Amino acid sequence: MATAEVASHEGHHHPTGIMRWLTTTNHKDIGTLYLCFSLTMFLIGGFMALVVRAELFQPGLQIVDPHFFNQMTTMHALIMVFGAIMPGFVGFANWMIPMMVGAPDMALPRLNNWSFWILPFAFTMLLSSLFVPGGGPAAGWTLYAPLTIQGGMSVDMTIFAIHMMGISSILGAINIIVTIFNMRAPGMSLMKMPLFVWTWLITAFLLIAVMPVLAGAVTMLLTDRHFGTAFFDPAGGGDPVMFQHIFWFFGHPEVYIMILPAFGIISEIIPTFSRKPLFGYTTMVLATACIAFLSFVVWAHHMFTVGMPLAGELFFMYSTMLIAVPTGVKVFNWVSTMWRGALTFETPMLFAVAVVFLFTIGGFSGLMLAITPADFQYHDTYFVVAHFHYVLFSGAAMAMMGGAYYWLPKWTGHMYDEKLGKIHFWLTTIFFNVTFFPQHFLGLAGMPRRIPDYALQFTEFNVISSLGAFGLGLSQLLFVYIIVKCVRSGVRATDEVWERPRGLEWTVPSPAPYHTFETPPKVI
Amino acid sequence: MLTHLRKVVLLGGATLFAMTGRAGAAWDLNLPPPVSPIGQEILELHNLILLICLIIFFVVFGFMFYSIWAHRKSRGSTAAQFSHSNSLELVWTIIPFFILIGMAIPSTATLINMEDTSKADLTVKVTGYQWKWHYEYQKHGVGFYSTLSTPRAQIEGKAPKGEHYLLEVDNPLVLPTDRKVRFLFTANDVIHSWWVPKFGTKKDAIPGYINESWTLIEKPGTYRGQCTELCGKDHGFMPVVVEAKTPEEFDAWLTGQKSAAAKPDTAAAEWTNDRLMAEGGQVYSKCAGCHGVDGGGTPGGFPAIAGSSIVTGPVDRHIDVVMNGRSGTSMQAFKDQLTDVEVASVITYQRNAFGNDIGDAVLPSQISALR
Amino acid sequence: MSGSRDGYYLPNPSAWPIIGSIGLFTTLLGLMLFLNEGKTGPWLMGFGAATIIFMMFGWFGRVIRESEGGMYNDHVGLSFRMSMMWFIFSEVMFFAAFFSALFYTRSLAVPWLADTDLLWPGYEGGWPTAGPKGPLPIEADTVVADPSRQFSTIGAWGIPVVNTGLLLLSSVTVTIAHHALKMNERRKLIVWLGITLVLGAMFLFLQGKEYAHAYQELGLTLGTGVYGATFFMLTGFHGLHVTVGAIILLVVWLRCLRGHFKPENHFAFEAGAWYWHFVDTVWVGLFIFVYVF
Ligand code: HEA
Ligand code: HEA
Ligand code: CUA
Ligand SMILES: [Cu+2]
Predict the structure, then answer these.
(1) What is residue B6's predicted lDDT score, i.e. its pLDDT?
(2) Among residues C72, C100, C133, which one ends one of the domains?
(3) Residue A242 near chain C (CB below 8 Å)
(4) Helix (H, G, I), strand (E, B) or coil at B245
(5) Could you give the C-alpha distances from C5 to A183, B95, C40, C75, C168, in angstroms and in order?
(6) Which one of C56, C72, C88 terminates a domain?
(7) DSSP character for A145?
(8) Interchain CB distance below 8 Å, C229 and A236
(9) CATH assignment at residue C136
(10) Do both C41 and C96 map to the same domain?
(11) Does domain B30-70+85-114 have CATH number 1.10.287.90?
(12) What are the residues whose beta carbons fall under 8 Å from the beta carbon of A319, sequence distance 6 or more?
């Protein structure tokens, strides 16, 4: 498909040790930083989820007090969303996009470094808020006013942490867009780009469009808290629900920010192990764009119970339902890619297939939530919690795991341990379902979310869910072990790694040299 | 690894088995049986959508698993090289679209019905507080607070949990069956959300704004629900309990409430320090949720009463905080929630309990003078 | 090392970003402590801000040297241009949040409140308003006696319309300067860019006067209900952006004096000019939706 001539001339003396990582302008280094950061945050956020699940193991208050419980729920979500999932995908983007489009590096390498190095500071701010007087933020990751107006200084720390994350995301997204538009190798037309690059292009656009809106929302929160403005105070003519509108105008595109790159990864993995080109490339691109477009006009489906006028409820119901169409197109195309292929099931493929299957479960529960009258029953119950863990964990997080197995040999030059990988896959998939499937039933039976204690009829499913969560958590330690092992040792990977995969990244040696494509590859 | 897995599964299984003996409702897999027309419509809608989703799911993944089984390389499958089909794309865009229209029609009908609060027989104003509900029967002059009645000992595991653990209150909302009841929702401090699953009624209670909803209860009985919008520390501890009575019983109950409300206040009676302290100790249970049973406060911005500069300082400021609250915090204005006697006694109590020992007393007459 | 193909410049490792992060973190930490009555707050903020300024001098200085040293080709220039466009787009979305807040409160929230007789008896709504508990609005530009009971708004046809003229004019002058740069007429460039700066400064001065008038005589403050909140946040953030734009143009102007930029290569100038047009456009939106209607 493509050939590359690789110039591997090392530059002059580069800083070594910690300074190498602090000052690096290399997209692979920065990608690695992002991925390590994401994994760390995943463990910390997961640990907080385990605190939540441990408290919910039995009715009654056992381990934590209600206020701390709310902090754990809030922090868990903020860390997972802004610390684990988003930076994780940016890590993939950094590593893969320049290699996939045949660029020597990202377009703006110094800015790229800054995008990353804002994050550790942002999360230092966020995490240290747990230790200030009054404890961490406890109003849920949605930070609804006026509950956040009541909160202590941790709310301010959260707001500033979000400002920093926003700057990081916007700069990162600008870099990605410019790289894709301006750094492609000659011959790499837009419609030849791998789907992962396409999904990221659209994701980056979403990021630039909505992160500033979130920044605006939390800024209003800050001024309401400290400078006497009345955006969310009815006595001054404001409206608490306005915060929700602005938040969800960010929040809904945000969930697609977390799933579109996952779709991209899946669209790379499935063709490789089906030994067949991706079915319907053009419609896949169109469907992605369509999802992104629709994501701007559905936000109030998170707010069906706030008392919107009927016309608003109907509009948001219809527009939300419509998203099922382009998403369905994607699912059908993946299945058709597998159809009459020559399938093998190495770990990445196992993850990809599971993602398609489990994400669709989450998609269907999403569709049920979109049915406004029914959402009055589901809203703010564990049915919603089940929905979004199906799309976020078995959609976004498991796609990342699959992607990590898929490209680890290219990154490290070693094959990961296939047997352990498969065990990790099965443990994750099984425990994931044990954890979250029963939550559908809990929600339907009437268990609200964000409660530290519950009525007795919810006991059984909570026990199952908590046991599953601990299994799920422990299984992730295996993931860490496999990665470490693969970085340090393992069978040497070939350049192609898999059987005739498509894409420029497979034309360079494994591990990919520090500088790739200093002379552009020829794209046929 | 695998033995470890087996252990966890076995352990989980054993726990489950041990529990199945109890609580029949625990294994419910679907929405609870509704007792209102809207609840019924929602249940039917839910079942319909679920069924459609399941059918699509089995068709799509039927194909996928067939492919996984039949097109494996190890079975000798070789890859075909087709890569697109416009007609297929068109088909699987258009069919889902029509399925969605099919779903949207009944949903729209139900939604329009849900939002129609006209022609109600009775209107109840529901106000959310941190963390209790206030119910007011509009035009009847009857109103009261409804607070969790599960003892703390049960929550902390020091006593066995009762049947309606966390779903019981001191004063349930009493409603008539077979009459259209309109609710007006609002809140005092932060957003709450009022939900009774069996009615299919859930609506946010938003400070400064009024939301409407309605229900028509078909069967007498006690129906339980919870606050469903995170509203701070005790969000999990503000249940909703509705007692549905037949119209006749309800009318009798309402009349009884009206005459009780007209009872004269005892404020004129003789108040000694001891009586104030005893009464104040009772009233303090309303404060203990935030300020702690021992007056030590709770983490998360709820100050201690013991040694507080307000409580041990000039009495005017103390009275002001309790009567008018502190805006922007969960310290609410208690002047509308407590009688003069209750305000006076709880202040006296706070000033003399928990080692505060100021020694002064606040009389109910002082409070009524401030109203 | 500038290892590259077709001469695309790839910078060496750099410490500026991490210094920037430290600056950003310290500033925000200081601000947070300041808001919560921590005594170290202002000091930390000052230190953080100084670090950021240091970073900007260092980082931009480096970029300027690289640029003047001819290390950037057109390809790099295009990357810069694209980034600036997308950055401005993100700024547009930031303002969009505040504009939506204005539209939402005006056309939905306030009418709803006015309809809620049960909670706010006697509240009539309308615009401007400071809400059911806030002071009442009176005719624009009237001096109020008791700001706790009344407030007045700033009419569109005084300072605001003058300011609109100033900014529109400055957009023209900066374009003239741009043409001059392209024609390599340095004197013309310096004069017209200088005029742009003066116009920007005049705008900011008048805006400051207007604010003082609002606070001291009209009873209109940030705390005057939603009207005050939306008014000051929108115009305030705009003013901040004008300040930033003016600083960019000032630096560009100083560089022009030093003979920087070539007719075919002057990214910084273009970026500054785009930014200037952007704040100008936002102002037109403000003028229409905040002042006129
Ligand atoms: C990755 C993240 C992600 C993704 C992809 C989605 C996808 C979807 N979500 Fe979800 N959602 C969340 C993350 C996500 N969501 C989160 C985090 C919350 C909670 C936030 C909070 O409150 O904290 C939430 C909450 C949420 C709500 C609010 C619930 C409530 O609070 O009451 C709703 C309501 O409409 C909703 C709907 C949907 C829909 C319709 C989709 C659709 O995109 C799904 C489309 C997919 C399919 C439908 C399946 C595949 C399609 C086919 C096989 C085609 C054929 C199908 C048909 C014709 C039916 N979501
Ligand atoms: C973005 C992705 C994401 C991911 C991956 C997860 C992962 C998990 N979530 Fe998450 N969750 C959210 C996003 C996510 N969640 C969001 C947005 C909310 C809403 C919050 C809100 O209401 O505001 C939420 C809320 C939420 C709730 C509801 C809380 C409530 O309403 O009170 C629950 C309860 O079960 C839960 C559980 C879990 C579990 C068990 C996992 C598991 O997958 C985690 C797996 C466990 C690990 C990965 C731990 C591994 C580590 C160790 C075993 C120890 C080692 C520790 C260290 C080294 C520190 N989550
Ligand atoms: Cu009230 Cu939750
Ligand atoms: Cu959404």
Answers:
(1) 47
(2) C72
(3) yes
(4) strand
(5) 11, 50, 50, 11, 43
(6) C72
(7) T
(8) yes
(9) 1.20.120.80
(10) no
(11) yes
(12) A294, A297, A298
Cβ(B243)–Cβ(B172) below 8 Å: yes
CATH of domain B122-156+165-262: 2.60.40.420
Same structural domain, C142 and C203: yes
Domain range enclosing C10: 1-72
| B207 DSSP assignment | B
* Tokens representing residue C144 in the block: 């109020």
A residues 170-229 near C, CB within 8 Å? 170, 173-175, 177-178, 181-183, 208-213, 215-217, 219-220, 223-229
**Domain B268-370 adopts which CATH fold?**
Cytochrome Bc1 Complex; Chain D, domain 2 (1.10.760)
Q: Please identify every residue of A annotated as catalytic.
A: 76, 105, 141, 168-169, 252, 254, 256, 267, 301-302, 327, 330, 449
Query: What pLDDT is attached to residue A524?
Result: 66
Mean pLDDT calculated for residue range A107-115: 96
| Interface residue of B184, B210, B211, B336 to substitute, partner C, most C CBs within 10 Å | B210
CB C193 within 8 A of CB C178: no
The CATH code of the domain that includes C1 is 1.10.287.70
Residue A76 has pLDDT above 50, yes or no: yes
pLDDT > 90 fraction of chain B, expressed in percent and rounded: 54
First-to-final CA distance of chain C:
57
Domain borders along chain B are 30-70+85-114, 122-156+165-262, 268-370
Cβ of residue A27 lying under 6 Å from some atom of ligand 2: no
Chain A residue numbers touching B52 (CB-CB < 8 A): none
Q: What is the model's pTM? A: 0.93
Q: Are B230 and A140 in contact (CB under 8 A)?
A: yes
Our answer on whether the CB atom of A483 is closer than 6 Å to any ligand 2 atom is: no
pLDDT-derived band at B265, boundaries 50, 70, 90: low
**Chain B residues within an 8 Å CB radius of C119:** 186, 208-210
Residues C34 and C85 in one domain: no
pLDDT tops 80 at residue B300: no
Tokens standing for residue A298 = 């559905």
Give B5's pLDDT tier (boundaries 50, 70, 90). Answer: very low
Kindly report whether the peptide bond that precedes residue A407 is cis, defined as omega within 30 degrees of 0.
no
> Residues A248-257: what's their mean pLDDT?
96
Mean pLDDT in order along chain C per 10 residues (293 residues) = 62 94 97 89 94 95 90 90 96 97 96 94 92 91 88 92 96 96 93 96 96 94 94 97 96 93 90 96 95 89
Confidence at B268, pLDDT banded by 50, 70, 90? low
What total number of domains does chain C contain?
A: 2
